[in-house]
Design brief:
The protein starts with 12 loop residues before the first helix and ends with a helix. By secondary structure, the chain is mainly alpha-helical. The longest helix is centred in the N-terminal third of the chain and has 48 residues. It has a domain of 321 residues. The chain is built from 22 helices and no strands. Keywords: Membrane, Transmembrane, Transmembrane helix.
């Protein structure tokens, strides 16, 4: 953006946390009712930022240390063959070390050998850092600076898990909160729309202007999931580390044709998915909540979150969130909702654990169409894996459904599980998560749209605790649903038997009035 906005610089993540926190309090804090659930929710949302900052800063320091070590090793390796080319008889005698005068003479004398006394010329650009070997990486990890960076990152993950555990409790208690007073944002609908559109334009411009150098340093790596999605590069909108020794980041022209194509596809998908999230939030607020102002406030708050600013271009974050959100939007159509849930579960298998909850919601009407649509979506995605290549088809299917050994070593996992937590503790967390998933099939007995939203958010929050590849950072999976839960009205009459197939009940008139677009 600096090309068409003079001296524009992307805000520092810490600066953005302060700015967004003040804006969030000013726009959504209920000052007339200080002790309210809305204010507690706003505080929880703000408290998600410090942990995210610590994780990113710790990773940035680790990445910079690794690049510096790699650059030093590469420079030393490139200097060895230059010294080896010097013949023994051409070297200066040991008893007569070269002086400034002799060096000057050797440089000016026509018959002199420059390699005997002249230092190797510095290269025009530093050697490209290479990947560290296992021995070199182990030595780097034993340094004090690297340990401090890892400790900062570990503290950030623990902070994130602590706040997300409180969010999980909030979502589990939400079905018990029957009284939901109308608490609109402290700004008009037009002002919220203007602020949201402005934020969206700047964030999408950051995605478009992101450089390949930044893309190569995104972490943590993707875990099991859909092979075609894992092939796409990450598009982070903030640099992880500075250039080493003045090295310029590569441009798009320096990438191969395949890399350029994948980069453009990833950017387009990220922009479309973020647009789908915002449009879905607005439509849910207008159609299902009967309150466009609440939908605009929810969308603006999503854009204000520091997480959204830092992970705008992460395809594996936002695409499942958009699909789940549109399934909520189309909950009146079990067939369409099933296609969206099936697509989300196929691209990233964690939404598979939403099926007991959603099937229970449609149990009295529409469960057959919903389950059939889920199977169709999964079958289509499995068939497309034939074009993935690289690995056998069955291996791709195995990764698609996450059928892998959960007790992997710390070298294969990332996030908190490589920073001191034994991977064996993932097993009881996974068991507890499966129990929670099937528990929602029977509780609450009568499910409405509000319970469907809050319980789906609870399952996506709980998935962070056993996600072995950066769990805690994938807040986009639950953030839109969490915001909808915060802003939603009482939706007790939105049950499957009253809203599916257009069959009326005594409360049909009031339900239609609230759901009108």
């Amino acid at each position: 953006m600096s090309e068409f906005l003079l001296y524009y610089r992307r805000p520092d993540p810490t600066t953005w946390v302060y700015m967004s926190s003040f804006l969030t309090i000013g726009l959504f804090f209920v000052f007339r009712r200080f002790w309210s659930i809305r204010n507690l929710d706003i505080v929880l949302l703000i408290l998600l930022a410090p942990g995210l900052l610590m994780v990113n800063e710790g990773y940035r320091r680790q990445t910079r240390l690794a690049r510096l070590a790699s650059a030093e090793i590469s420079a030393a390796a490139n200097a060895i063959p230059i010294e080896a080319e010097v013949a023994p008889e051409e070297a200066a005698p040991a008893e007569l070390p070269p002086t400034d005068e002799t060096s000057s003479e050797s440089e000016t004398s026509p018959g002199s050998q420059p390699v005997t006394t002249e230092a190797p010329a510095e290269p025009e650009s530093p050697p490209a850092p290479r990947e560290l070997t296992a021995e070199e990486l182990t030595k780097l990890q034993e340094s004090d600076a690297y340990r401090r960076a890892a400790g900062l990152q570990r503290t950030g993950f623990i902070t994130l898990f602590g706040i997300q555990f409180l969010v999980l409790l909030r979502m589990l208690l939400d079905p018990l909160m029957v009284r939901r007073p109308l608490l609109d944002p402290n700004l008009t609908t037009g002002g919220l729309n203007f602020l949201g559109i402005s934020l969206f334009i700047f964030m999408m411009a950051n995605v478009v202007a992101s450089t390949p150098e930044i893309q190569q340093e995104q972490g943590p790596k993707l875990g099991p999931g859909y092979a075609l999605i894992n092939m796409l590069p990450a598009i982070p909108t903030r640099p992880i580390s500075e250039a080493i020794a003045g090295a310029e980041p590569p441009t798009m022209a320096e990438l191969t044709a395949a890399e350029q194509r994948r980069t453009m596809i990833a950017k387009i998908i990220a922009i479309l998915a973020q647009s789908a999230v915002l449009i879905g939030i607005l439509l849910i607020g207008n159609r299902h909540f009967g309150n466009l102002r609440a939908g605009a406030g929810c969308a603006t708050l999503y854009l204000l979150m520091p997480y959204t600013a830092q992970m705008t271009g992460r395809v594996d974050h936002v695409v499942p969130a958009a699909l789940i959100l549109w399934a909520v939007l189309m909950y009146r159509k079990p067939l369409i909702a099933g296609l969206f849930i099936g697509a989300a579960a196929g691209l990233l298998y964690y939404p598979l654990f939403l099926l007991p909850l959603w099937c229970s919601f449609y149990w009295q009407r529409g469960v057959g169409r919903f389950a059939g649509a889920v199977l169709v979506a999964l079958t289509v995605l499995m068939a497309l894996l034939a074009f993935a290549g690289g690995e056998p088809f069955l291996t791709h299917v195995q990764r698609m459904f996450g059928v892998l050994n959960p007790n992997k070593g710390p070298n294969e996992l990332t996030g908190i599980w490589e920073l001191g937590w034994n991977p064996i503790w993932r097993l009881p967390v996974i068991v507890g998560y499966v129990i929670l998933s099937f528990f929602f099939a029977v509780w609450p007995g009568q499910k409405n749209l509000g319970i469907l939203i809050s319980c789906s958010a609870a399952l996506m929050v709980a998935a962070q605790f056993w996600h072995g590849y950066g769990g805690g950072l994938y807040m986009s999976w639950f953030l839109p649903l969490l915001l909808l839960t915060i802003f939603r009205p009482n939706l007790q009459d939105r049950v499957a038997t009253k809203v599916i197939d257009g069959r009326s009940r005594p409360t049909r008139r009031s339900s239609t009035a609230l759901d009108a677009a």
